[in-house]
Amino acid sequence: MRLRELRADADRTQASLDAQAGVDPAFCVNVENGKNNISLDKIFALADDLGVDVAELFRGLISEDRPRSDITYRGSFAVRSGWAALMYRIAV
Fold first, then answer.
1. Domains plus CATH for the chain?
2. Which of 9, 49, 73, 86 is the most core-located residue (most Cβ within 10 A)?
3. What angle, 0 to 180 degrees and rounded to 10, lies between the N-to-C axes of helices 40-50 and 14-21?
């Protein structure tokens, strides 16, 4: 997930994003470092608070050349590539 990059582009701190999204303190730190799993409701809340579409959080993480059944680890977010591709296509 591109949370760190988009948060920095929005000139937001992790603490301010945590507070606005209504998540526990240090949530963004843990997500950015791959220590927390993240639910869909939190994905949508973070995207909303950053002022971006949900697809922006995943843009560039999916390769159309990659088989859909593998597990992809990119940045701080592990996803089944088929699910992420579906989320990306729905959000776009």
1. 3-91 (1.10.260.40)
2. 49
3. 120
